[in-house]
Amino acid sequence: MEISDIRFYKExxxxxxxxxRQELRALTAKRNWTHLNSxxxxxxxxxxxxxxxxxEMEIFNRWAKIRRHYESA
Length: 73
What we know:
Layout: H1 3-46, H2 56-72
């Protein structure tokens, strides 16, 4: 095997690795979006809605309630 063959081989696998990274990033975004939609649907079914004057702690408590319900399902 010649040096040029080795370089070509290494560069080809670097390109493959980059494509796999891009696919993983896209999959992660899709998975996160699906998860968020699932949480929002569950909140709607539970009747949990955000009011205009909700404080940060109230929002945190609502998310905690959704999360507990989601984890117990």
